[in-house]
Write the structure tokens for this entry.
Amino acid sequence: MNKAKILVVEDDKAVRNLITTTLETQNYQYHTAEKGSEALLEAVSFQPDVMLLDLGLPDMDGIAIIEKVRGWSGMPIIVISARSEDRDKIDALDAGADDYLTKPFSVDELLARLRVALRRARQDSGHAGAPEAVFTNGELKIDYAAGCTYLAGQEVHLTPIEYKLLCLLAKNVGKVLTHNFILKEVWGSALPGDTPSLRVFMATLRKKIEPVPAQPKYIQTHVGVGYRMLRIAEGEPVQKNG
């Protein structure tokens, strides 16, 4: 039995059954909730490792659930919603969601996103109270103490902004970061018109750390939303840029 515990918050019976059947085939433990109030109770009592959350619930909006859970828990939250507008994705991610999957979705993609979220949860618990001094992801290495970056053993010379961007993505590996979040963390503010500058810096960073910049494997673009650093796990195929 897979020890990972998943909370499925979905009021649509057909979608809920699809998700739970998928989890059963992979031997995940799971509980379900059809309303936001039930989801909050289950989040406290069941203590899930990951929450799969629909936004359109009958008693409260999913954004409110994310905000409430983030008041006491850092568990990964993957939104699964029919809302496909960039604004909806940005609102959910800014509220504290880790990922966003749009309906209809493929079972394989759901399981892939779930594996990423569980890896992040394990890494967060493993490093609790003691931040890592060196970050390693595939052939990429960041030595935080020395302020140096290496690719395949060779030092990569980054500008201060490029280094801050890379560190921010690395410390949130597997999580989608919105443009506004990145701008506030790196520059201290997010003003209208700043996003094009972010894209320029991200492009120069990719040229330095991506073996094939036109086919990036470390930094994934979520068009109109933001960026995510992909975790490259040994023995797993690298996700393609999306």
Residues 134-229 form a domain with the Arc Repressor Mutant, subunit A fold (CATH 1.10.10.10).
